[in-house]
Amino acid sequence: MRALLASLVVMGLCRGGVALAMFGSAPAAPAQPIKFSHKIHAGEAGIGCTSCHVYAEHSTVAGIPSMLRCRGCHKFVKEDKERPALTQEMKPLLKILEEGTAIEWVRVYRLPDHVYFTHQRHVLAGVKCQDCHGEVEKMEAVRQVPSLTMGWCLDCHHKKQAEKPGKLAKLTDCWTCHK
Amino acid sequence: MSDDRRGLGRRTFLKAAAVASAAAGCSPKAATQKLIPYLIPPDEGVPGTPLFYRTVCRECPAGCGVTARTREGRAVKLEGNPEDPIGRGALCARGQASLQALYHPDRFKGPMRRGPGGKLAPITWDEAEDSLGQALVAARAKGPGHVRLLSRSEPGSAGALQKAFLRSLGAREEDRVVLEPFDPAPLRAAGEVLFGRAELPVLDLAAARTVVAFGADFLETWISPVEYARQFASGRGRVGEERTRLTWVGPRLSLTGASADGWLRARAGGELAVALGLLRWLTDPKNAVPDLAPEARALFARVEPLQAADLAARAGVTWAEVERLARELARRRPSALLGPGPASQGTRATQLAGVVLLVNLVLGNLGRTVLYGLDPREDVPSSFQEVEGLLAAMSAGKVDVLLVAHADPAGALPAALGPEAALGKVPLVVSFASRPDATTDRAHLVLPDHHTLETFGDAVPRRGVVNTAQPVMTPLADTRSASQVLLEVAGKLPIEAAHFQWSDFYDYVQARAEPYAAAALGTVPDLALAQRDAQQRGGWWFDAARERVTPSLTLAAAGAFLSLPPAPVSGGAQLDLAVFPTALRGDGRGADLPWLREIPDALSSVSWSPWLEVSPATAARLGVRSGDLLAVSTTAGRVELPAYVYPGIRDDAVGLPLGGPEALSLLPNAKDGSGAFAFASATATVARAGKRVRLPLLEGSPYQHGRAITQTVSATAPAARRPDLSHVMYAEPKHPEHRWAMAIDLDRCTGCQACVVACFAENNVPVMGAEAAVQGRYMGWLRIERYLGDEPGGALDVQLLPMLCQQCTNAPCEPVCPVYATYHTAEGLNAQVYNRCVGTRYCSNNCPYKVRTFNWRDAKFPQPLQMQLNPDVTVRSRGVMEKCTFCVQRIRYGENQARDERRPVADGEITPACVQSCPAQAMVFGDANDPSSRVSRLAREPRGFRALEEVNAQPAITYLARVKEPEQP
Amino acid sequence: MTTPSFRSLEETVRATHGPPGPAYFVALGIAGAAAAFGGWSYSLIVREGLHWTGLERPGMWGNLITDFVFWVGIAHSGTLISAVLFLFRARFRTAIYRVAEMMTVFAVLTAGLYPILHLGRPWFAYWLFPYPNQRELWVNFRSPLVWDVFAISTYLTVSTIFLFVGVAPDAAALRDRAQGWRKRLYTLLAFGWRGTDEQWRHYTRAYLFFAAFATPLVISVHSVVSWDFAVSVLPGWHSTLFPPYFVAGAILSGVAMVITILVPLRRAFHLEEIITQHHFDMLSRLVLLTSAIVTYSYVTEILLAFQGPPHDPERSTFVYRMTGAYAPVFWLMVTCNCVGPTLLYFKAVRGRAWALLTICVLVNVGMWLERFNIVVTSLAHDRLPFDWRVYVPSWVEWAMTFGAFGWFFFLLLIGLKLIPPVSIAEMKEDLAHHADAAGAGMDHDA
Q1: pTM score, two decimals?
Q2: Closest approach of chain B CAs to the CA of C111, in angstroms?
Q3: Distance between CA C47 and CA C55 in Å, rounded?
Q4: From CA B841, how far away is CA B880, in angstroms rounded?
Q5: Per-residue DSSP letters for B100-162?
Q6: Which terminus of chain C is more exposed, N or C, with fewer CB under 10 A?
Q7: Under 8 Å between Cβ of B685 and B574
Q8: Spans in chain C with pLDDT lower than 50
Q9: How far is B835 from chain A (nearest CA, A)?
Q10: What interface predicted TM-score (ipTM) does this complex get?
């Protein structure tokens, strides 16, 4: 019986996305179609997160910047005199902008479908982007920093709840995050 | 089901791969996902938040306004437009289900031409339009009548353009035939004869104290069901004299009749005799009915010779019953008598319509509840005579080009008219249908039209009401608006007259809107702005039509209607074939949509299959029970149908739902004086076929077995019985902030199923198919429980009970779950966390209301139906229990809105999908913690009771008992 | 009766471990095949979901839960005979308790499977065990299903230990003569037993302790199982009668199963000398007694239901059981559990092996039907008539039900070849007592 139970558990692990997520530790940064450095944009250039991820404050999703937004700056920024390497890096983007096609980014952060997560509530509650996404402004390529497990979410929710117990009772209600 | 075309949708539908599993709540983590940014971000709308568009419903001529909710550029749900005077925010089952027509897997992907091999092959739009143009030119050369157009009723720009187009080809008025199978033509005809007004009267049932329906199913399909359900309901839900009473007249108790306080079991065709009887009694001086219309005396002179006995005999009821109804009408004024509807539209339908109108006139209802002068007469449907004329011309080879726009002659006309043979004789049949039907199977050119949600347009269901349509999303396939195609073809024709000044249908619609704008706003400084504004609101609504004409009667004409109907012929082996429309199938144009097939009929609880209703006595005589196959044969044909034993039908009749091929193949070609098709004219012989099928029935036992599950109250006993639950053993859960609750008024509920479809759409409830239905694995979170009486063989007493999760305070489902997958939220909801559920199913066993459904297998949402899925609700995987959540996602949305605006949630601001969709406003949702909220006030009403209250689960749903006044002698 | 000598006894018992004949392999094959087919049928459910069963709303439990309750019931008499009768010093138990104990362990192994097999998502079955996890989720201790988890696992542990403790001395005896893998096996099972006085002293103490420890479980485990139903609000389940009623039923089915196994076993292994008519006689009385209790429970249950008003759902459910779609199940159950055993009043019947066997097999059938009757009819006839539906098990469920029997007998047949079906040590003890008694008598005569 034990053996069968064990085998069922294993089967479960292979099947259930949930079960997988349980052991989800931060994986390495996936390879993106073009080299895009948050370090340069958010770090050196000091562009705020929401100036590209424009929906973060009023929607569930933060939003992937539209190609129009890329063009907005790179109409003018076509090269870096000091750093020819960067000029090289820019070339593929400029080409894409020319063709008028879109960049097919590889997704880094993914929540299962049964999770209800809204950027809006978190951002408005004063959670800093870095609290969950790590110091993106220091990353050459973005990688998933937190495990995104339920325990990880709860950690923070418990802390916040402890600050004002009565008011934030809902923070640990299942249906606050599950749909 | 025998018919291939219907099968088509279902087959593709059922064998398609389980695409949902990718989205399923507990599915394996998807491989690398791509994020593809917008090239140019949409200027309106934010990804992840809903965006609403106002448009119009074209599923039936009622033309209700629609609010389409879109997410990331795809329509996910249809609701009514609260500003539209017809629907007032509600939308019927068929209207909501039209969303599945948009995403139907079988939709044509582009224009097609039938090749030499007899197969439809894709072509380009240019080819298609050119070949159509050439054919038109050729046919035109032969003179008028060689180009014909068959269309559904298009009261608006589309219709106007069709006419203009034909005119430009030199066609005559009659070359355009408008097919609306359920059009109450007899009512128009009678109106013309009596008042010289060939119009449909518009009803104000809210003003009527008594309603008598002569087979007019005004709560299901008749003329404008959503509007009439709302009006009718406004007079219900109260105890005493001022409550609106309804009497149903006909051989079969319809779903509309289920809301009635009395049923006059007139035999098929007997409605006329009843109406005459009423007229005779009311106008009879010795009954001294006060303040009758002046014409009454003169009319009595005509009806006096009719003997009460003869009338009663022809009606198939006792004279006392007729008298009782007449007395009620005399006492309760104003009233409204309605008819005929498809169920009573026999060979003497016009006479019935005439007498009904006369009774209305005598009682002074005209101008008060029955209003003339509101019919826009924008696009009056043709009579069946004209349709037949067209078919004759086709068969005679006089038609070279037949354009078919959203009409399905081969599939919607009685087989007796031989539409298929006629179609075969036409060299070029052009269909604008957007998905396969019996006509496209024979069409040479298929030019798929946009879905209403993909195109501009408008509909004028009534004078002073213009509902506008606009695209709510980009077209899914290479389809093109039929009107646009006409414009383009016309432009290419070598005919001067055909070169309209508009190249785009949009401009045409806008141009036609000018008078509306003027009527609505008086002076129009900026037309473009006004039109944009109208589009946002969903239409132009102006009161121009409010001058109510009281038509004057021409007595001489009335005489024609006042003759004694012939004695009934049927009897012996012959049974009357009582065909009837249903709220879900309607006239059959959307009957292949998965939701409408999956959801059981409210009265018979049958889904996925046609059925034949037989009375218990007939069943006993034939020795059959529900599910046994019966062979039904009429002069027109023979069909085998599963029996359903239903006490709500006369012993000398059998009932058969319209909207499917069965009825069409059984109905003989009979017409009434006005040229309308006579649905209620056939008699049939019924015999058992010996075989038995597993009929997909939702009902277990249709009787309450003395358990008083639903209650009724009356003026004498106005309060519902409640058990004593004062003894509390354990502390009950606290709900500090909100306690969401619902009240359902059983006196208003008509069982129209709009709420059920709304639930399917809002909550991604899967459609599991016929086999699952047979096995009792229907997944609906909300079902209409229908009881026919107390004990088998007892008195017929139809009671409807919408059953959904009661969100109990002491929920039996909660303590038994070993893993906390179900638990009690602080807002009083019985939450179900799908991805925590391991599927012990104990919660369902312990639920007294059996409102939890289990995923026995993975649900299927074949492409592109999965685009309809609501992203705010996950798709449940197999092995998981699921249930009604009071639409927690909508609650969440409402609470979010309120929080953003730093205000508390307003009462009535949050509505679950079912509550939102209810035409009768029988369902009310709100916060029980707020004593002043509507739901709290209703819960305190004496009519209030709770289902199975003795179990002491303390449901959050309060039912308001149906009112049952004893009939006065 | 001729009392066997020490040697003949040990010979007879060891003989059971001799090379098996064809009959054994045939039996093993049938059992194995049944189990394998059951397993394959279940794989359908794992792959495509429970739509392979006949379950629907409202009947969400069916054969699989019935099997679970049935096998837990079977498990009971083992402990009853070995522990309770031991405490009562009922001598007749000695010859038969080993088989009873093996039966117990294997029955629990069977029963324990079914709650897992019937899950919608069995791969998450481990969520029913309370263990620390990053989700910070705990099991719901209010749920009877969680009580089950504890009850069953406790029972399995205790009965297994009890079996092994009893086996130790015999294993030692066998060890000394066996060679090859058997030697290794018995060395393991003997737990280093050398039969010293000290070991004997500790052993008897320990055995007494385990007996005392196991006894309450006989009552508690099946009471807990009965709560699965009793704590619900379903008419026909919600009853305070259930715990004693279930325990009695469990013992009835268990003892019947012991007899069902012993009769052929005795014949096959020529244990007539050891397992005598006396034993069957005592067991039959046990069957008779428990059958009487069960009958009493049926009557009480029905009488209580009929206290209610005419339209009371509870009452209606019982009327439905007796007259509705499942009436045959009910009446067959009554015949097997109440009428059949009454024949055991007659010594003649008790004395005839085949008669005894037939009655006991029928009791087992009846007890399975009883559980089916409780689980299914109540669900099929709940409070809302509109939802009533008749549940009919699918072939997959039947395959799994018979698979359970296959699995059980497979384990048993293997076990019989590895573990002595009769406790040699205790039998010797008994013989010793006999010998003393005899010797004393002679002295007296002289």
Answers
A1: 0.91
A2: 16
A3: 17
A4: 9
A5: HHHT-TT---S-EEE-TTS-EEE--HHHHHHHHHHHHHHHHHT-TTSEEEEE---TTHHHHHH
A6: C
A7: yes
A8: 1-2, 439-446
A9: 7
A10: 0.89
